[in-house]
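Format notes (please read before filing issues)

Several people have asked whether sequences and structure tokens are stored in separate files. They are not. Every record keeps both together, in the order shown below: the sequence lines, then the token lines. Line labels are part of the format and must not be stripped during preprocessing.
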Amino acid sequence: MIERVTAAFAMAIRRWPLPFVGAALAASVALAFGIPRLKFQTGQDTLLNPSSRIAQDNARFQSRFGGDPMLILFETPPDGPGIAQLFTKPNRDAMADLTAKLEATGDYQSVITPLTVLEFAQQTAEQRQVTQPQKLNDDIAAAEQQARAASAARGEAREQQDAAAAAARERVIDAFNAQFGADAARFLAAGDHSLDNPQYVDFLLHDASGKLRPEMAGVFPDDHHALMVVRLAGNLSIDDSSRAAGHVQKTVKPELFDGVRVRVSGPPLLIKEINDKMRGALVVMAVFAVAIMVAVLSSIFRARWRLLSLPVVLIGCVSAFGLMGFVGIPLTMVTISGLPILIGLGVDFAIQVHSRIEEETFATQSAERGLDRAARRLGPALGIALVAACIGFMVLRLSSVPMVRDFGSMLAVGAVIVFLNGVIIVGAVLFLRERRRLGPRELPRTRFEVERLVNGLTARTVGRFAPIALFAVIVALGGLYVGRKISTQTDPEKFVPSDSSVLRDLHYVRDVSGSTSELDLLVEVPAGKHVTDQDVLDWMDAFEQREKRAHSEITQTNSLASLTALTTGEAPTTVGAEATLKSAPPALRASVVDEAGTSAAITFAISGNDTLTARKAMTDAIVADADAPAGVSVAPAGIAVVGTATVEAISHNRDFMGFVAVVAILAMLVLAYRNPVKAVAPILPVILALGASAMLLYLSGVSYSPLTSISGPLIIAMGTEFNVLLMSRYFEERAAGRPAREAMTEASLRIGRAIAASGLTVMGGFAVLAFSRFPLLDNFGKVTALNIGLCLLSTLVLLPPLLVWADEDRGFVSVGADAPGHEAAGP
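Then the structure lines:
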């Protein structure tokens, strides 16, 4: 069946070569109009399934409390007047103007400046001068009453009751003076209660001992630094988030502040750099991919017009990406890496077609017969290889990460298009060339005689199946064992170049402030309750204190309970919380409770540079320890939670997707060849290669990146191609009457150069990802290129002795034309 289809296809090309080329070019031009339709999807829905619990919780949190924070660090000289310099009149005006400009964009949920906090502290201090004496009187009356009652209960006389009450009064006054007396005196001595008065500013910032007040620690890390927190609006796409983060950078100009150095940082800027530079790297990677293909084709591929494959594949890539635009397959941070991969894969297919057409044309001295024989003999095997590749790519659809599923779809669609372009255009162009008898009738020499190398390698392995098989089993099992021990890099900062200026600023801010990341918790109360209810506040306060004791990484907490305690100086109460919400600036209020009062945010500031795996363990422990009141729910949210869930989703079913790819490709080979040995043989060298790769990576201490975790199905698919092509050619030579060993020698000589060139081009397509300068893609490209190289080597080491042993020694396979592409190879 397949042979009849390929023969008919070859006949059509022979009859209408120019119309076929014209149709392929016209289709490419038409599909190119789909490229402007390509959309970069960079929102949360590319990272997590929108129906997942984490995605839904995070979306609700961000809709109520905003997205991730931008951090602006203000720094005064060590020998200067300290952070009070930030509150001179010109600098206060600059902060107010900066706040107004940022809020006017609508891109930010809240803008909290050091001035915001200082003004709130001023308001609180003024209120305390009124509320504290009132509270002192209330406490005195309560203490006197309690002391009198206790004395009366003991049967004491009235004089003794009066003495007990007086003693209680003195104790309350002494306690009040110890806690607030010094501050009250400093408040009165500060003079004008205005931020223009440096002595009053010093009172607001420092306690009686001269230390920064504890309630200021989250914004004022020390006497020479202060933080401004600009929280982005919630549920922004990465593009919109990057734009908003960039706007903060442009708006916060250092020259606006007199005597103060300004540094802008925060996780959104890191994501912006990843997003921007990965897009920019797309063009660079494509250029390097073309350069590598030119080098491989020029030095190894033995054919006339040896660079023909490259423009043909580039035309195919235009068609592929245009079709993606029309059908709505989006570009993401993963799918943009598909261009160099498709270039390598497309050149691989085109090389096979080019090599076989030239071989058959030179053998028959006829363009017509050469094209027909190439189509009948190579077409079925190449078609099977294409189906295997598409199966491997489509297995990625099993991932729960949308951008990984899109990556699989993109590679499958692209593989089909570059395959069709390679077959049609290369076949038609070579037919036209040979029909007109242009050029000499011998193959040109190459810089490297790959055929001799390949033939020498296979000649040394044939007849030695037992030791090679034993070695393969040991390596495969060893790789399976150690592969589970290879760690996956989950530190987000390792995904970007170490010389990144954004990363340097992030580290600097972290060193000064103690943290640059946070863990957000969404607290929701049931209908009929309010987050200011006393039981909710008591739980929130106890929960925060408990987690700070349990996790040294938590440097600060921010919630309605903590804000109330800092404002009132006491344990949070419903009355205190309601008063705090009324008096707090809108930005502070919006950071802890929603407008309806049915949701609250608890934010833990996290120190250190934990991996996402460690962060997930801490998050799980905190949520499990929440022990919220009945009906109150607690759910993690924020960029750290989304990033952790994404990496876990990419990595956790790595082995499962590899298993499915092997089973699916094996089932396809059984249907195609109708022979279990012929079906299993192409898979075994790939398993050997994967085992060898795992052992090499484990012994060298190399970790996987999250992307490398999805490379298994790709390697299985493309490694199967090499084995199918070599096996097909071997049985073709056997069907021509050659003995088994002679058939293998002839097969390796005839197809060795094409397989070697194909393997190197595919390796180059992946290896070029290293030029992106992003460790995330660098690791993916290098590890996958290594695996492809090992697949190529295992094809030449294990498959020849395996086929000869199964055929000649055991008779497990027939040599007739019982499978696609196995008809006799006549002269």
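For reference, the curators noted about this record: The chain has a mean pLDDT of 84. The chain has 29 helices and eight strands.
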